[in-house]
Amino acid sequence: MATIDDYVSRVEGTCGAEKDVIVVFKYDKRDEAIANILKKATVKNKIAGIIFELTFQDTSFRLYASGKAIFRSIKNRQELNNLLASLLL
Amino acid sequence: MDVQALRKDFPILKRQVNNNPLIYFDNAATTQKPLQVINAITNFYENSNANVHRAVHTLSLEATDLYENSRQKISEFINAKDWAEVVFVRGTTEAINLVAYSWGLNNLCKGDEVLVSLMEHHSNIVPWEITAKQKGFAIRYAKVNSDGTLDYDDFENQFSKKTKIACLSQVSNVTGVINDVKRITKAAHDNGSLMLVDGAQSVPHMAVDVQDLDMDFLAFSGHKMLGPTGIGVLYGKKDILQKMQPYEGGGEMIKEVEYSQGKGCSLSWNDLPWKFEAGTPNISGAIGLAEAVKYLQAIGMNNVLNYEKELTKYAVERMQQCNKVIIYGSSDLSDNCGIISFSVAGMSSHDVALICDNYGIMIRSGYHCAQPLHQEVLKLQSSDRASFYIYNTKEEIDRFVEVLKEIGQL
């Protein structure tokens, strides 16, 4: 059974006053991760073919074609993991 | 300076990132490595690898020669009076920690003050804050003007009898502004204070002459000047280093560990600079750094600085044409050393960096380890930073500006 670790290479807290979280998808799974997310989240905006502004379960986030996603206002790792599990699996 | 020829020495510049040619503008964080450095390290491990000092076999003697010749080369590069004034450390951070712990803990107490500026990298703030809490001394922060330049009057006015050491970066890692450390060093010495210069962003980019500038300590990192990670230098004046206690204990830094029953061990320290190099040192790192120094010397440090100034001027002029791009720092680019911090209005710094990454352009976003400068002076949550080195080109800047223009239209 797949887990989020199958898709996620690393989670990085951003540096700066904004407490954003960047999720980096594994290189060989990034296309699959992006496809899964796009199937489930609502696309609010698609910018220059490389950035998707999305919402899912009242959470807004950006997904990059390079295989990274930036989440804002995430309270803790558990909340992020729940969100990723719903989006990816 | 033939940049296209020089670029061939850097294998990584041939790679693609996200299906685009790599454009590496994160040189203030770390620089790429030329083949000469990579080969010097490989050659050491393939042919001469052994532990240094205190062995009589051939390989150890070869390794020791390579290691100590590297020290000699680096001491000449910064024009130290004596090679023993060059202590190998992991990098700038460890060099400043060494001074804060070894000199600070033994020379500072309640009532004393350490003077730093608000533009310092965290590595020139945190070691002093930690030791201040242990010893009860105070830290004073000199102001920085809103354009990121040092408020020299404020720095000089804050010297008092209480000031035992002043600490200042020669080049800001956020704005790239070059500080007149010779002037501040003179002010420190006139006051009877010591002077520590953070050279992490200056030594890789300009000629730094420790005898001319006369600072007491200079800290810098190898990986920001084409060398490997995990190697750096603390330069210190010999008479000061001699009076300092070791930073760490173990092998190499010790001369005698004489055991007397019932009394334990009596210790005597090794000579400079080994007194501060406990344990097996980063031998290949020192060799790689010396090769990087050789590479930079062949180009000439004045050529390095002039080229970076040319790139910076060109980049600022081009970036100013971009809608929504806000550049931080002084408009006087004659005192800038290849670093540009900026924002794109309406975009988070991380989004800008992620979009650039999508086009194969590596820039940094965040505080750049200078939170006080961002909060107190620039009044920013974070910023983006493009930083250049000898292998960057105007064509790369053109591509970067195209991407910034696209970002401005989002």
Describe this structure in words.
The complex is a heterodimer of chains A (89) and B (410). Chain A has one domain (4-88): TATA-Binding Protein. Chain A is globular. By secondary structure, chain A is α+β, with helices and mostly antiparallel strands. Chain A is 26% helix and 37% strand. The termini of chain A are close together. Chain A has a 6-stranded antiparallel sheet. Chain B is of the alpha/beta class. Chain B is 39% helix and 18% strand. In chain B, strands 4-10-9-8-7-5-6 form a 7-stranded mixed sheet, sandwiched between helices. A 4-stranded antiparallel sheet of chain B has the order 13-14-17-16, with helices on one face. In chain B, helix 2 (35-48) packs antiparallel against helix 10 (283-299). The relative contact order of chain B is 0.17. The chains are: A alpha+beta (89), B alpha/beta (410). Chains A and B meet through loops of A and helix 12 of B.
Which tags fit this structure?
heterodimer; A: 89 residues; alpha+beta; TATA-Binding Protein; 6-stranded antiparallel sheet; 37% strand; B: 410 residues; alpha/beta; Aspartate Aminotransferase, domain 1; Aspartate Aminotransferase, domain 2; 2 domains; 7-stranded mixed sheet; 4-stranded antiparallel sheet; 14 helices
